[in-house]
Every structure is written in structure tokens, then in C-alpha cells.
Amino acid sequence: MLPVSSYRQPLPQCKGPKLHPFQKGKADIQFKRLLSNVQGTLDSSDQAGHAYVFEISIDSKTYALKVFKFYEDVEDLVDLEEEEYHQVGSDIVRAHTDPFYRECRAYGRLIEAGLNGKVAARCFGYMAIPAETEKFLQREFEIFDWNRPCEEYDKLPTKRQPFRAILKEFIPDEGPLTDRIVKRILRDLKKMRKQGVYPRDIAARNYKAGLLLDFDAAMTEPHFLFQIRPRYQVDHYKEMDFFKFDQMIEDEGIKTLVRALPNDDYLEKLRPRGRGKGCYKQTRPYGRKQIHRRL
Q: Which phi and psi angles does 125 have, rounded to 5°?
């Protein structure tokens, strides 16, 4: 865990994109309501997630504040051999796998590329929320699960690590996804790919007004797994957005012809029936059932 002083500089402290702190200094935050438990609607299935999202106000302006749980066991989320883990180093593994840092890196790159607020909800930077806020959140929103290290509760609240949060624009609830919106979403995914940002959690619950809300599963270049894993596996990581986009179309029953990947039935019709030189063959190295591998 970083010392409190580290929360005044761009994060994470490693090579690559970084997110700067919100520039208001000691902002007076008014918590209005709990928008969601991590992603999507309030539901008991969300309890194992990475963060809580609140509607808040600062200086009478409304924002969405994503407050992250504490995160210690990075080894549990990355399928690394012991030799690989030591080769990469614990600091890099943490900087590339901690959900808070994943989101910082993704937004840092989008800001560099001039895409902030254009392909995803606008981000205003990260914040450190005083640990004393924990009691208030317990009382007002009945939130008890923060994964705070047990030894921290032996300290006075003023001596505990602050909560890490990311401040974004507040987007009111809108209607279901439409053909027009999913066309935009696919264009935006391609723009992010060109910048080396792979969100990897494409689902209807993570979109409002056609803008992506969540990057806590994202992989952003440079990423250590892209350097130590074989090419086919790296391609698999990068293609996950397209598989999940097409799955979202099916799950939501959206009436559209838009797809990120070739349709297998259509490719079958194109495939020549004869054999021999010049026959068309389309292969897919992995199917949808294989895209859920946990990192």
C-alpha cells in the first residue's frame, strides 16, 4: 500500500500512462446516493466486486465517484508461474492488475489521446478519501465490505490508509441500447484499441449514453503480460472486447446487424464446397466459451 503522500502525484508509479489527482485539493464531498455496487444494479451478486459508485456533489456540481476496495492479493488474479512473477516484479504486477490502477492507466491513456469524455465517461482525476469516511458509509449506505487489511483496524482512523477513488461525470440513467448506440460503441472500441487500451468488460450495464463507465478490468499498453506471453495468448486478451461486444448484442436482444467479429454462419456460406488449392478456409483460434479466463 502506498503512503498517503503518494496520492498527491500521478498514479500508478510505473512506466506508461498515469492519472493525475483531482485538482480541487480538500474537496467537500456530499454523498447523495449509492448508484451501484461496482457495476450495474444493486444486487447481492455484486458483493465480490472491486468498488462502489456514488452520486456525489462538490461545490454544488454533481459527479459520479467510484470508490475502490482495498486490494492486496495480486497473485490471486494473475496466472503467473513463480519464475514469471519474480521476473516481472511485484510492483509492476500490482500496477498492472490492481483494479484501481487498471482504471488509472486506461484513463491516463485516453486523456493523453484526447479521448476523455468521447469514448467513456469523462474522468476528472483520482481522489484520496479519508479513512474516517468509512463509518459514515457504513451508517448511511450499510457498506461494510472494503477488504481493508485487518491490522489497520488496530490504528486510529486518522492513521489508516485513505480510500482510493476516481471522479467522473455523472450521466443520468438512459434507455436501452439501440442500433445507433452500438455502432458508436464499436467505433469507440476500435479507437481505444488504436491507443493500446483494451477494456475487457464490455456489457450493457457498463454503458450510459453510449459511453463506457468501467475500466477496472482493462489492460493498457505497455502491459507485462503482452511481453511474457505467447502471441496467440496476447491476441486472445486483445480480442476479448470484440467477443464480449457480440455477446452483449445477443444477450440484450438488440436488433442490429452490427458485429465486431465475422459471423460463423455467413462464413460457412462463403466457404467453397470443393477441395484443393485455393479453397477458402476461416478458422478461429478460440471460441466464446474460452474468453472468460480470469487474469
A: 120, 180
